[in-house]
């Protein structure tokens, strides 16, 4: 699988967050996610399972502020530009009128446009009130 541009960050910039996040988990600065912030599922320890929960970044300049997202929701999130209907169905099922994921753009140009241009108000951080 190849990684592309997202919110104005290059593949190299995106991949650079991984060792930072791994070290932060190891040191206790960042908690390993246990619940998906979109569908709420509890994470499976098998990273290949659809309900495995991992980190998703919207802002790669803030690697210690990832969103916990299960593999299934993560896949739909990134496929939303080419296949919007499954993403819209997920939002209809799990959205509550304001969570961060409901605010994500469906415009494929936002993959290359800087985050601040696509989201001038930013995105809310979902961890408050989520089970850990």
Automatic annotation (TrEMBL):
Organism domain of life: Bacteria
Designated name of the protein: Uncharacterized protein
UniProt organism field: Rhizorhabdus wittichii
């Amino acid at each position: 699988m190849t990684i592309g541009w997202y919110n104005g960050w290059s593949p190299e910039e995106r991949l650079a967050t991984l060792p930072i996040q791994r070290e932060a988990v190891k040191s206790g600065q960042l908690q390993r996610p246990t619940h998906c912030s979109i569908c709420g599922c509890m994470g499976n320890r098998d990273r290949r399972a659809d309900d495995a929960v991992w980190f998703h970044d919207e802002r790669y300049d803030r690697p210690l502020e990832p969103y916990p997202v299960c593999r299934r929701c993560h896949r739909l999130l990134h496929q939303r530009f080419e296949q919007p209907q499954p993403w819209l169905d997920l939002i209809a099922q799990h959205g509550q009128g304001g969570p961060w994921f409901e605010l994500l753009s469906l415009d494929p140009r936002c993959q290359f446009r800087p985050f601040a241009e696509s989201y001038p108000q930013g995105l809310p951080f979902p961890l408050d009130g989520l089970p850990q």
